[in-house]
Write a structure and sequence with these properties.
Layout: E1 3-5, H1 7-12, H2 19-35, E2 38-39, H3 42-54, H4 62-72, H5 82-95, H6 99-110, E3 115-117, E4 126-127, E5 130-133
Length: 144
C-alpha cells in the first residue's frame, strides 16, 4: 500500500493561518514518514515550492522550502512525462475532472498508490485503482 500526497496537504503542514488543518496535515505527514508509504510527484513539489514561498503569509524562506523538497525526494516523485500526459487525458475523458487534477490522479496511478490524499476531490471517490481520501475527514490510523 502507498499514499499519494497532493500539494494542499504539504502546504497545510506549513500554513500557520489554519491551525486545525495544519495539525491534521502534520499527523498525516508523520504517519506517512513513519510508515514509509508516502508518494508524490514532481508537479506537486513544484506547486508546493511556489505556494509556500510566494503565497503563504508569512512565507517560507526559499532555503527551508528547498530543504522540504529535497526531503520529499525520498518519496520517489513521479516525473512529468509524455506517458503521464496521455494518462491524464484519458482520466479527463473518463471522469470529467479538471486537467490539473487528472495529472495528479495519473501520477498516483503511475506510483501504484492505493490512495490519493487531497481535499480537492470527493472523499472516497474511486478513480480506477486509486481511492480519494480527504485528510481532514479521516485520521491516519483509520486508513493506514
Amino acid at each position: 500500500m502507498s499514499v499519494f500526497v497532493d500539494t494542499n496537504v504539504l502546504v497545510y503542514a506549513r500554513d500557520l493561518s489554519v491551525p486545525a488543518k495544519q495539525q491534521r496535515a502534520h499527523e498525516w505527514m508523520s504517519a506517512l514518514w513513519a510508515s514509509r508509504l508516502g508518494r508524490t510527484s514532481v508537479q506537486v513539489l513544484n506547486e508546493y515550492y511556489v505556494t509556500v514561498t510566494r503565497k503563504l503569509t508569512p512565507g517560507l524562506a526559499a532555503r527551508d522550502a528547498r530543504a522540504d523538497v529535497d526531503n520529499l525526494r525520498a518519496w520517489m516523485p513521479v516525473p512529468i512525462s509524455a506517458g503521464l500526459l496521455e494518462a491524464a487525458f484519458a482520466i479527463e475523458d473518463r471522469f470529467g475532472l479538471s486537467y490539473w487534477d487528472c495529472l495528479i490522479v495519473a501520477a498516483a496511478q503511475a506510483a501504484d498508490c492505493d490512495y490519493l490524499l487531497t481535499e480537492d476531490l470527493q472523499d472516497a471517490q474511486r478513480l480506477d485503482t486509486v481511492t480519494v481520501i480527504n485528510p481532514f475527514a479521516h485520521q491516519p490510523d483509520t486508513i493506514l
